[in-house]
Specification:
The chain is an alpha+beta fold. The chain has five helices and four strands, in the order αβββααβαα. The longest helix has about 40 residues. It is elongated.
């Protein structure tokens, strides 16, 4: 795997683990509002880290790889679809990405369901964190949320798409 991507996936997996005041490792499968578990052995930690890293890698890579898959057919159809009426081309150009988006969203939802289904079996031997430690973890949470980063990435992808369409339109003339 590419070293930068590998480090990013390690950091994403690290976000699922926290330490309480006494230094015990706590696994947070989904969020601090749900069940969390104490991880006492190194073997359990490695198994859980491997699962979380695999899940986060798949969820992160799917949208990045599939964006060109959705944009390229639209560009090809826009440039070489001169035989069909303009309205039909637009319908097809919007229909292909929407169909692929639905399929990929279903695939990501399936991965999420599998992840949530594996967690109970993986954490069956682990002790659940009590409410006192949960409050402590919420108070000292080291997670940083970056919703503005998601908005900027979305706007960047939208800008690239618009640029590609404008470039295709300009060179077609």
């Amino acid at each position: 795997m590419i070293p930068l991507v590998s480090r990013m996936m390690d950091a994403a997996a690290d976000n699922h683990f926290m330490k309480d005041r006494t230094g015990r490792l706590v696994f947070v499968p989904t969020s601090l509002r749900r069940r969390c578990y104490f991880v006492d052995s190194k073997a359990d930690e490695e198994k859980i880290r491997a699962l979380v890293r695999m899940f986060r890698s798949a969820i992160a890579v799917i949208p990045l790889v599939t964006y060109p898959i959705m944009a390229v057919p639209v560009l090809i159809l826009e440039n070489y679809g001169g035989l069909s009426p303009r309205g039909h081309r637009l319908t097809i150009a919007l229909g292909i990405p929407l169909f692929l988006w639905l399929v990929l969203t279903g695939f990501i939802w399936m991965l999420w369901s599998l992840y949530k289904g594996v967690i109970p079996g993986l954490t069956a031997s682990l002790r659940e964190v009590g409410p006192d430690v949960m409050g402590e973890l919420r108070e000292f949470s080291r997670r940083v949320q970056h919703p503005i980063l998601l908005v900027v990435c979305g706007l960047l992808m939208l800008g690239l798409t618009l640029f590609a369409f404008l470039a295709a339109y300009h060179f077609r003339r």
